[in-house]
Input
Amino acid sequence: MLAKILFTYELARRLEGTGVTAHTLSPRFTRTNLSNHYPWFVRWFAALRMAQAKAMPPEIGAKDVVFAMTAPELEGLTGKYFVEGCEAKSSPESYDQDAARRLWDLSEGLVGQKFVF
Output
């Protein structure tokens, strides 16, 4: 989760002034079929966990993503973090710009491609 937030904040900084925005969010625990290709015991554990934690149906889980992509009030804003559709503070570590740059550079190295805008 920290890497995703760091990467998004760095992406937002690099896209500044382009008109393209980048936000990140903490996903709700959502009931999906993503574990269907795993062995039976993983599927069983996932089903148990979803029942215990009252996982949201996909329609509810997707609301936060759709909000971050389409909300008129976010027009012109970038690099925001959302929890359940509300702007929130991410962890103190997520604001470490040096760590974000190192993650960016590492990501470019791993894929063998420079991310140019």
